[in-house]
Write a structure and sequence with these properties.
82 residues, mainly alpha, 4 helices, elongated
């Protein structure tokens, strides 16, 4: 698979879980995605592969969190127990 196709797959997975990324991590993850785009543009395959692997790992963690959240939804009434 060429770098653009890999980037497309990674960015699509990222966009699907973007709402679940903790806000304090969003800028770091966005920076990593920009660097991934840079490596794609300049065909830096080794750097792309290394960063893409790390990025996929982060996405998998967020996807796991999404599945836990979706399987155990908390109603608004339960959230506001003071």
């Amino acid at each position: 698979m060429d770098l653009i196709a890999q980037l497309d797959t990674t960015s699509q997975r990222f966009s699907n879980c973007l709402a679940y990324v903790p806000l304090n991590q969003l800028s770091e993850i966005t920076s990593a995605l920009c660097l991934l785009i840079h490596h794609t543009k300049y065909q830096e395959e080794e750097k792309f592969a290394e960063l893409n692997t790390r990025f996929i790992h982060i996405i998998e963690i967020v996807e796991d969190l999404m599945s836990v959240y979706k399987s155990n939804p908390v109603s608004e009434a339960e959230e506001v127990k003071w």
